[in-house]
User: Fold this.
Amino acid sequence: MKTLKSYMMTLITIIILIVMFFFDKPTANDALNITFSSIISMLKVLPPILIIMHSLDIIIPKEVIIKHMGEDSGIKGYFWALILGTFAAGPLYAAFPIAAMLAKKEAKMAYLIFFLGMWTVTKLPVFTFELNFFGASFTLLHVLTGIIYFFILSIVLEKLVLKKNKTEIYNKLNLM
Amino acid sequence: MQAIIFYSVAFILLIYLAIKDIKLAKTVIKKSIKGFLNLLPQMSFILILMGISLSILTVETISSIIGENSGFMGYVIAIVVGGVSLIPSFITIPLGATLVANGAGLSQAAGFISALMGIGIVTFPMEKKYFGTKFALTRNIGCLFMTIIFIVVIHFTLGAN
Assistant:
């Protein structure tokens, strides 16, 4: 029963898809094709990321993360978060297991927020594409705005907005 | 290419662990399968919803709505469409460029890209599963502000071109 309930939204979208087939077959076909290609791109990324993160969870000692991205790592922690976010590939949901792994090893929350932010801005595949399609000034403005903004956001969220929720968030991440 | 790298790294790590202790490799596989199944309900919903919305919203439709003179509404639509869509990043940027070529304004395209990368309405259930509602909510709102700031930056620097 619980399984059925958790797939409720999926069922609804499948029903919409079926209804679409009766009203507009070409669009429905498109929808189906796009869905399949998104499933493929998801399968290209998510299963290996999960395996890599669970492996690193065992391989990397907690002390290493605490030392480089822990409560007292200062600016060094931001540097590592930037590196991790830059040398990444895949959609944002692929970053969640990585953040979870870091949280398990007691990485500071500000770095996690900054890391997720960098994933959306400096991620290498995006960066190179952006450079090609939009030029250097556009890309530079994007990266600079992103780094400054997410640096401030990470502090604001950690110190003000999410201060009381920290334990709760880390407990949740530990379960993943 | 990306997939080959990911799967190779995963495979090498598994072998490394198996050599150390076969039990470790087994634990990793078990945990990964469990994690995957845990995400599957949200994931399957997200993927089908994406298929449906992208079949309806084509490049021409989007670029005609967020054209150079679409004004304030153009920005709102760029952010909303970007926020609800889930498109691989190697498509996002060329798509943004195509939008500009089809008449969308540069700052609207910037908003579209930034929202697309940072705001995840459809991935929200998944994000919530990892971080809880408050974190997911504030991170998304945070990315909304990033998008607005980026639009303003582009508008006042490169917007005239």
